[in-house]
Amino acid sequence: MPLEEKFKQLYNEYKDKKTAHFQKLEENKQNNLKTKYQIIEEIKELVNREESLDKTFKEFHELQTKWRDTGLVPQANVKDLWESYHHNVEMFYDYIKINKELRDLDLKKNQESKITLCEKAEGLLLENNIIKAFKSLQVFHDQWREIGPVPQEHREEIWERFKDATSKINKKHQEFFVNLKEEQKNNLDQKEALCAKAEELSNSEISGFENWDKKSNEIIELQKVWKTIGFAPKKENNKVYERFRAACDKFFNLKREFFSEIREHQNNNLQLKTDLCMQAESLKDSTEWKKTTDDLIALQKRWKEIGPVPKKHSDLIWKRFRAACDAFFNNKSNYFSHIDEEYEENLKKKEELIVQVENFEFSGDVDENFDRLKQIQRQWTDIGFVPIKKKEEIQKRFREAINVKFDRLRISEDEKSDIKFRSKLEDLGTKPRGNFRMKQDREKMILKIKQLESDITLWENNIGFFANSKNAQSMIAEVEKK
């Protein structure tokens, strides 16, 4: 049930109970009024009885006790009722034939009771709770009315004493409510200021977790301050409370909407990052080092672009993704650490092979020398890769050394060119994009051959065309030379 409906329900129950309570009090007061009028009638009857004074006086005291024990009566009847009661009590004392000693004793007892009430009323001046003191004073006034007369010579003195204490308490009570009114007005001003601040916060544009947390703490601080402020004037108290609560409710409703959207967005991010984890895990055992490295770097870039996930999943999902990436890169690192060692070993072998070429000694057999050099070339190719930073240098040294040896062979220029060309192809085969460069060279050669074939056809046609001309022989000789 919403807070507002709960409040209204409780408030209506309170009003119903309050109404029933005061109706019951009013019924009791009416019954008490009837009882007290009956007591007055019985006191009247005592005056006319002819019986022993002791018995009459005893009955009189019983009626007084009954009067005091009877509760409150309607306020509108208090004055008339008390005057009637007081009059008939006076009549009882004046007209009943009782002995003077008994009457004096009763008057003295009444005097002592009223002096006690004076002392109690004066003691209320020391009470810090003026509301409590004022209510107690009303009880003392009710008790004062119930006590009978005092000796005539003390009657005025005792009453003035009681009245003086009453005046002082009434003055303090009045001052209290004047101060209370001023205090409540000040409380209203403070609460309206808090309302304005709460409304400003609830109407402001807020984005981001940190800003929402900061503004939430500000609202909570306003609520704490609100609780330290007392009541505003009664007619304004509920209004200002409803205003403040409305501003706070608006703020926290907006906050709930924001975090609901954020949670939905973060849950979507969690799904996206879970998908990335699955992709990374599918790649972690790959040995396609270059392609997989590029793929994982792309996944890592995408990971950074996705944004946060729910806090409770953040650490776990990140560890899962990182574990898959680390597994691949650790495998790659281990693999290439062995490759580096292998490349260094290959470098040593190729350096030794270059020394072997440089120290190559020719025999008298050309074919044997040619085969030995070709064997060295095959060994070079079979050795494999060397560290990239040494690749160009070592390749250049070998090519220069082997070309020097081939140049010394007593073989045709075509054979030398063929050997050097094959050496070039083998060299390209060891380089990045070597296949692409070989393909380019092949296409260039094909174009050159086609161009030569076209030129030959043209020259042959020219020979046939100019065969019978005066300068035919010189032109034919020039074409054949080409």
Strand-helix topology:
Layout: H1 3-47, H2 53-69, H3 75-95, H4 100-123, H5 130-146, H6 152-202, H7 209-228, H8 234-283, H9 289-306, H10 311-358, H11 366-383, H12 388-408, H13 413-429, H14 434-465, H15 472-481
> Taking all residues together, what is the mean pLDDT?
83
* Percent of residues in helices: over 70%
User: What structural class do you assign from the helix and strand content?
Assistant: mainly alpha
Shape: rod-shaped
> Largest sheet, if any?
none
- Taking all Cα atoms into account, the compactness measure Rg is 60 Å
Count of DSSP helices? 15
User: How many strands appear in the DSSP assignment?
Assistant: 0
Helix-strand pattern: HHHHHHHHHHHHHHH
Which oligomeric form is depicted?
A: single chain
Q: Stretches where pLDDT falls below 50 for ≥5 residues? A: none
Strand content: under 5%
Distance from first to last alpha carbon: 108 Å
How does this model look, in words?
By secondary structure, this protein is an all-alpha fold. Among the domains are: 3-145, no CATH class; 267-337, no CATH class; 360-432, no CATH class; 435-482. The protein is built from 15 helices and no strands. It has helices at 3-47, 53-69, 75-95, 100-123, 130-146, 152-202, 209-228, 234-283, 289-306, 311-358, 366-383, 388-408, 413-429, 434-465, 472-481. The chain starts with a helix and ends with a helix. The model has no long low-confidence stretch (mean pLDDT 83).
